[in-house]
Amino acid sequence: MSDFHTDNPVRRLRIVICWTSISGYMAACWSALHARPEVDLHVVVGAPETTTQVAFDASLMGSTPHTFVPEPRLRSGDAAVTAIVRNLKPDVLVVPGWMYAAYRDLPFAEGLTHVPTAMTMDTPYSGSLRERLGRFRHPQLFSRLSRVIVPGERGAMVAKVLGFRPEQIVKGMYSGDFAGCARAYAERLRGGGAWPKRFLYMGRYVEAKSIDILVAGYRAYRDRVKEPWPLVCMGKGELGSLLRGVAGIEDIGFVQPQDQPKVLAESGVFVLVSNYEPWGMVIVESCAAGLPIIITEVCGAAVELGQSSYNAQVIPAGDAGALTDAMEWMHANHGRLPEMGRRSSELAGAYAAEVWAERWLQMARQMAAGR
Fold first, then answer.
1. What are phi and psi of 217, to 5 degrees?
2. What distance, in Å, lies between the first and last C-alpha atoms of the chain?
3. Is the pLDDT at 278 greater than 90, yes or no?
4. Selection from 60, 51, 93 nearest residue 258 by Cα
5. What angle do CA 290, 174, 12 make, to 5 degrees?
6. How buried is residue 298: exposed, middle or buried, by Cβ count under 10 Å (0-12/13-18/19+)?
7. pTM to 2 decimals?
8. What average pLDDT does the structure give for the chain?
């Protein structure tokens, strides 16, 4: 565990962010906030597990002060987690939703009840009865919060249903390494050749990502066009077997964030056909890499980053035929893809890690001042 800085004569704002697990994009955000001279940041986060569907390396945390906690301790409400956070003496505390008991208990723990607290939440609006009844699930926790942080508009709608006032809702839960992804865009342009004729899927190989639809839609696309483009899949998960032996599909497995720009630079269109996707940081990352995108309308980021025929094709979830049509459209409109990619890059600029750090610092200052 790394301590807060103590050698600065001007007292910095002490922010403790609790999170479920590490990822390349959040590590970039935390690093940007840690770099702010007016902030003392410490991240308490679930220990990385390479045996699961993601395999992010612990070294992603770099110099950002952090404490790794095994997931079972987070789920059980281990008092040691409370002790860790209490000893950090935060001015502002951020907790991730209500799934982990250890984090859920923090706002009520001795020594922390006076600390302004924000909660992150990425559940997208669905209009369900369960959603409407959600405000009665954790009324004490909700009443204790100063802010609720959501990814975008669909998350803000849920926050309002849960009873949070508009002034409590902050958009911008996720951002990422825009500069790193932008290098892929620059590299693609520097190549000077034709726009790459290659589709890319990046994500877990799980049911929520509709891997079966991805395969079925791609197979039909290959039957429709001459000289079909390959589909490169970058990820890990129990449904990886669906990708094996399919003509045109190359599964390159899980790729660490620092190695992803090369794959992005060699790709021409990003594809994500999830049937459930609260936000979809891979959409932001692909847009930052200057890629046109094919995404389903259920993706949370579709509202902010998916504009059909501008930078994207936005299709219904669970519809392999719609995916085939979208892939065929990208194929037939190859000459339009560079301009669509440029538009994607512009839309993604709002989600750079440095912008995220400024947004969160402004929020933390307001919370610490009691506003």
1. -65, -40
2. 31
3. yes
4. 60
5. 120
6. buried
7. 0.88
8. 92
